[in-house]
Specification:
Length: 79
């Protein structure tokens, strides 16, 4: 399954990415600032594709091709 994961470099997103990848899914990581994926244990987490984008924009402001599922773990914290 090809999954678009928003917030993939965040605390929640990176844990979700690790579990989905371990289950055999293809992860397309939508990131706002960084392409580094480090788990809470300090180990790197692999994703299949990293796409820069912004969840506040239509279509996430990104080109990521066809996906089966979108898992939304991103947050905006401007408060």
């Amino acid at each position: 399954m090809r999954i678009l994961l928003t917030g993939a470099s965040g605390v929640v997103g990176v844990a979700v990415a690790a579990r989905l990848r371990a289950a055999g899914s293809t992860i397309v990581a939508l990131t706002h600032r960084t392409g580094q994926f480090v788990g809470n244990d300090g180990n790197s987490v692999e994703v299949d594709e990293c796409v820069p984008g912004d969840v506040r924009l239509p279509g996430f402001g990104a080109e990521f091709g066809s996906v089966d599922v979108i898992v939304h773990c991103a947050a905006t914290t401007d408060f």
